[in-house]
Automatic annotation (TrEMBL):
Residues 10-35 have a biased composition (Low complexity). GO terms for cellular component: cytosol. InterPro entries: Aminotransferase_I/II_large, Asp_trans, PyrdxlP-dep_Trfase, PyrdxlP-dep_Trfase_major, PyrdxlP-dep_Trfase_small. Homodimer. Belongs to the class-I pyridoxal-phosphate-dependent aminotransferase family. CDD domains: AAT_like. This is aspartate transaminase. Keywords: Aminotransferase, Pyridoxal phosphate, Transferase. NCBIfam families: PRK09257.1 (NF006719). It comes from Penicillium cataractarum. Residues 74-448 form the Aminotransferase class I/classII large domain.
């Protein structure tokens, strides 16, 4: 019998899903025969279907599957959170290819374990990249960094640390933007933190609901943890301005709130690494104690290599460097118990690029290629919709930044786009701009125009 779990997640192997050889098929038959003969002599199952309910399918991965199975040659994938080139193909950054070749040809590279904290050349470079080489946190030795399983692993490690070591009783609530990257909810729930939301997106302006955000942060208890997207907010593509970041920081200082930055798109948003790190650097300069979950999936195109880092910055003070050593030692224990030590490959590639000025400059060029193409698609889409006179306003397509755009299309419109036009996007109307290209832009604009008219 095929289990319902297996139907939900075909990528997770179950014993009945894919026998790898005829001998395993024979073994399966033998084992089912022997359990039939033995009847109830074995221990009864504890983990029955009634005890373990089937989990709902991950919406994003379900969307990807539906797209793959759609035979239409017109289909457009705007769900995927990964960069695609103008031919809708994954793009290996030229600088990554170069670093990869160099690693392959380096006879000193082996397959030994990394240390618990990861590749030291990588973590020190990741640190400088996000807080700046001249950061007071580095100068005063009050920052520690561990290599993690990409950004997801960094968010998890940070959440776990806060839930175990935050000295307040009860533990502070973590406030997430509404909406936020869906996985934030699961990760922070799994580590036992209490979650709350702060308003972020204004459906009316399709921009930042700054007043709503500020009011919610003011009302949040002193000492709360506030999850902030450093740049290119997922899913809205809406970021605070530098002036607004300053006001957020001032309020959070007054309320003694703890910033937890998630940075998954540095350099990918504006094309400028320093500009995209501005908010984090500002908060560090303001003397906040904070943490940062950093992903290299998007900006290096190292999605599958799971390359990331978690940084903790202690507040300035006489005890700061002792505190950070204690924190680093506890983080190392958490890391050891979960993954023992992180994977080497992606970190080697990133480290090679980050530590070599020539390769670094080539990387910046690659980042400009990706962000530039996305900006071009934003301009192209807005232009086409405005030219057609599609009902509504479309300026938000170019004011939002980064990989995603919150189009304002509703669930019904998204459904028609999928059923009638073979255009795939998440139910909340988010599109990945990277899925657009010069071959499908006209088609997508035509589809949006038609659906908006049909439903208005
Ligand atoms: C806001 C945000 N945080 C973290 C991540 C983590 O990504 P990864 O684990 O692939 O680095 C993502 C990826 O989509 C994201 O959008």
């Amino acid at each position: 019998m095929t289990s319902s779990r297996q139907l939900q997640n075909p990528s997770i192997s179950t014993s009945s899903s894919s026998p790898s050889s005829s001998s395993s098929t024979a073994r399966d038959r033998l084992s089912s025969l022997s359990s039939h003969i033995m009847g109830s002599n074995g221990n009864p199952s504890v983990f029955t279907p009634a005890a373990v309910a089937a989990a709902p399918e991950d919406p994003l991965f379900g969307l990807m599957k539906a797209y793959r199975e759609d035979p239409s040659d017109k289909k457009v994938d705007l769900g995927i959170g990964a960069y695609r080139d103008n031919n809708a193909k994954p793009w290996i950054l030229p600088v990554v290819k170069k670093a990869d070749d160099a690693i392959h040809n380096d006879p000193s590279v082996n397959h030994e374990y990394l240390s618990i904290g990861g590749l030291a050349d990588f973590t020190s470079a990741a640190q400088k990249l996000i807080v700046g080489a001249d950061s007071p946190a580095i100068r005063e030795k009050r920052i520690c960094t561990l290599q993690t399983i990409s950004g997801t692993g960094a968010v998890h490690l940070g959440g776990l640390f806060l839930s175990k070591f935050h000295p307040a009783q009860p533990k502070p609530t973590i406030y997430l933007s509404n909406p936020t990257w869906a996985n934030h909810n699961q990760i922070f729930t799994n580590v036992g933190l209490t979650l709350a939301k702060y308003p972020y997106f204004s459906a009316k302006t399709k921009g930042l609901d700054f007043d709503g955000m500020i009011a919610a942060l003011r009302a949040a208890p002193a000492g709360s943890i506030i999850l902030l997207h450093a740049c290119a907010h997922n899913p809205t593509g809406v970021d605070p301005s530098q002036e607004q970041w300053k006001q957020i920081a001032a309020l959070m200082r007054e309320r003694r709130q703890f910033p937890f930055f998630d940075t998954a798109y540095q350099g990918f948003a504006s094309g400028d690494l320093v500009r995209d790190a501005w908010a984090i650097r500002y908060f560090v300069e303001q003397g906040f104690e904070l943490c940062v979950a950093q992903s290299f999936a998007k900006n290096f195109g190292l999605y599958g290599e799971r390359t990331g880092a978690f940084h903790f910055v202690s507040a300035p003070g006489a005890d700061a460097s002792t505190a950070i050593q204690h924190i680093a030692s506890q983080l190392a224990i958490l890391q050891r118990s979960e993954i023992s030590n992180p994977p080497a490959y992606g970190a080697r590639i990133a480290s090679k690029v980050l530590n070599d000025p020539v390769l670094f400059a080539e990387w910046e060029e690659d980042l400009r290629t990706m962000s530039g193409r996305i900006q071009e698609m934003r301009r192209g889409l807005r232009e086409r919709l405005e030219k057609r006179g599609t009902p509504g306003t479309w300026d938000h397509i170019t004011t939002q930044i980064g990989m995603f755009s919150f189009t304002g299309l509703n669930e019904n419109q998204v459904k028609i786009l999928r059923d009638k036009w073979h255009v795939y996007m998440t139910k909340n109307g988010r599109i990945s701009m990277a899925g657009l290209n010069t071959h499908n832009l006209d088609y997508f604009a035509e589809a949006v125009d038609s659906v908006v008219r049909e439903t208005s």
